[in-house]
């Protein structure tokens, strides 16, 4: 273990004044700190029955000729939570989403959407689910108001109720000024907002979303997060497929990772946030930063200094908060303090064998 550098003249309190922060317990170097992996189906809980609610995928497979697009996929997206579906291109996500939406039958296994079987009772699945595909297949010559009213009528809503629901969703999607114009004039982000509104027309209990934040401006992204969190808090189930890992980190409570047609990992993100992970700390005075990190008990095999930037392995968000508070009290001028990557990105890189993750592939 390297010795600490000599203390700077300023911003170095007496040893007795500094609280000790125990962050030991990671025998490997910081770069090899691994995410917490748990059972992707139920996170260590008993295997749920097919009528457990939400989205249950049990041993599902689907082939196209000699190509096995999905094989033995098993997971549970629970009511009351937002679950992220993550994987590289060609991992089988689109095929899985089509099966969940009752648009493609599996060759093997069972699927339940709010207790309904999409093969035997697709109508029940479509009543329970709001489906937002990556590309909005809309009637380009019709207005958002007519589209939403028509979708409501197709779901069996009375005409007046369908119109009222369309007006409500148009306001929520901030499409008032375009409500009666042909949908072909909508921008990509506006089409995304219309697509989400269409998925919500019939007040489903399950939302299946493919890249819902694509093309959205920052304000719309914040509104999307609030809407989906509220939907889940009311008992709804949300499954989001997205390549935007930072956006999923803001939204998801659970994550399912797929590759080559299989579930390769799953985690409760609340558990991931309790695992040792790398934080990046930048200070104007690197020597003062290094000294203070040593002073509060951070082992030097867990710290890497690169100029003004320190890479530090910390065991929890609480430990990170304690380190930051100590540095501020010690007078160290901190200009950056944040996780090196988000929880989902860290797990994804670990599965893919990305840089600094210790992954196998």
TrEMBL record:
SUPFAM superfamilies: P-loop containing nucleoside triphosphate hydrolases (SSF52540). Residues 55-285 form the ABC transporter domain. Residues 1-10 have a biased composition (Pro residues). Residues 1-20 are annotated as: Disordered. GO terms for molecular function: ATP binding; ATP hydrolysis activity. InterPro entries: AAA+_ATPase, ABC_transporter-like_ATP-bd, P-loop_NTPase. Belongs to the ABC transporter superfamily. This is ABC-type multidrug transport system, ATPase component. It comes from Agrococcus carbonis. The lineage of its organism: Bacteria, Bacillati, Actinomycetota, Actinomycetes, Micrococcales.
């Amino acid at each position: 273990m390297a010795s600490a550098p000599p203390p700077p003249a300023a911003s170095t309190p007496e040893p007795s004044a500094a609280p000790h922060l125990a962050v030991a317990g990671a025998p490997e170097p910081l770069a090899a700190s691994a995410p917490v992996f748990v059972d992707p189906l139920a996170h260590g809980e008993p295997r749920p029955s097919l009528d457990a609610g939400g989205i249950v995928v049990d041993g599902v497979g689907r082939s196209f000729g000699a190509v096995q697009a999905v094989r033995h996929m098993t997971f549970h997206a629970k009511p009351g939570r937002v679950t992220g579906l993550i994987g590289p291109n060609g991992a089988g996500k689109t095929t899985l989403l089509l099966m969940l939406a009752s648009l493609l039958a599996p060759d093997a296994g069972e699927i339940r959407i709010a207790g309904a079987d999409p093969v035997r009772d697709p109508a029940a699945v479509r009543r329970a689910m709001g489906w937002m595909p990556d590309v909005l297949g809309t009637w380009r010559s019709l207005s958002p108001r007519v589209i939403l009213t028509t979708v409501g009528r197709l779901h069996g809503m009375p005409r007046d109720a369908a119109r009222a629901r369309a007006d409500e969703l148009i306001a929520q999607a901030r499409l008032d000024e375009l409500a009666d114009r042909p949908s072909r004039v909508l921008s990509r982000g506006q089409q995304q907002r219309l697509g989400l509104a269409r998925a919500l027309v019939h007040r489903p209990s399950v939302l299946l979303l493919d890249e819902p934040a694509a093309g959205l401006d920052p304000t719309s992204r914040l509104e999307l997060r609030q809407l989906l969190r509220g939907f889940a808090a009311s008992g709804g189930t949300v499954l989001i497929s997205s390549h935007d890992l930072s956006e999923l980190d803001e939204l998801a409570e659970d994550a399912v990772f797929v590759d080559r047609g299989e579930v390769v990992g799953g985690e409760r993100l609340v558990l991931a946030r309790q695992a040792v992970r790398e934080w990046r700390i930048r200070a104007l005075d690197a020597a003062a930063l290094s000294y203070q990190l040593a002073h509060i008990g951070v082992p030097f095999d867990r710290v890497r200094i690169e100029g003004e930037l320190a890479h530090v392995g910390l065991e929890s968000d609480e430990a990170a908060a304690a380190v930051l508070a100590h540095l501020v009290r010690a007078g160290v001028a901190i200009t950056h303090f944040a996780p090196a990557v988000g929880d989902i990105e860290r797990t994804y890189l670990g599965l893919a064998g990305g840089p600094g993750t210790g992954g196998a592939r």
